[in-house]
Amino acid sequence: MPENRVTSRRGMLFGTAAVSAGALLTACTSNDPKKTENTASSQPAAADDKPGTPVTIGFAGPQADHGWLNAINQNAKSRAKKYSEVTLEITEGSNDTAAQIGQVQTLINKKVDVLVILPADGKALTQVGLQAMKAGIPVINLDRVFASPQAYRCWIGGDNYGMGFNAGTYIGQQLKDKPNAKVIELAGIDNLELTKQRTQGFDDALKNFPNIKKVARQAADFTVESGQAKMAQLLQAQSQFDALWNHDDDQGVGALRAIAQAGRKDFLMVGGAGAKSAMDAIKADNSVLKATVLYPPTMSASAIDLARALGQKKGVAGMSELEIPSSITLYSAVVTKDNIEQYLPTGFA
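and the corresponding structure tokens:
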């Protein structure tokens, strides 16, 4: 899961976002339960659907070695195909910062109209973002933020603090009447800022429920294997608890395997990100997994909408301003059995 920025976290409360994605972008998550396509290509456009000035968008992301990152790439491609006047120049993607810098520089040399960049490392790619902006190519900075606001025209990404806060609030609501309730946390990679933000949000939410205590926390690596190994350790150390929050649905696949192997059914689990496997489990309602908190990969589709609007000198539908915003933080919705049909089409493999 991508690393996010500290400055975008402004103490968002449950039910709010720094900028309402629903008001800003109709491109994000479709709310039509009848839709079955799990890419953003079938969703309404952000600016307008009428073909305008031809725009060439350069897209540079990291290597798609995680379900969420693969969904980022697929949503960007699908969204670009929606517009007959948009040409998408997409790089192969790399987790090597030097390689990604070279890929972005190639797009700059091709003189694309707008760049969409999800950097492998925001700090390391700041200079190439500045290079593009100085060359007159506006940059949409996707999720992992550059170190300087001068390196991008608009930032759009997820809400890691809100993700943790909403997970904690949901668990708190489920356990509010249980005396001396215990919860545990299966976090992501501890040296990532996003992991710290998710944990902080979770802890802050639990402060609103004095009957609940977090008794254990273990960090994994966003992989199935690490999720299974770290969850097995937690289960051995904690003979009894009431709820688990897992930061990432990919590692959650492994966590669920460990839980099944241990024969444990005595607690509820909340996942994170919104993978299709988690959505399917929530709908089936035959495991401890009862909810997942979204970190929408549709943000890349919205980034294409924003890039198109920039290239055509348009604003965003639903807003009065002539320019696109400078920053958009997406909301981390909690998906449960009660609203699963609404969000199921957005689940990613």
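(Above: one complete record from the training split.) The first helix runs from residue 21 to 24.
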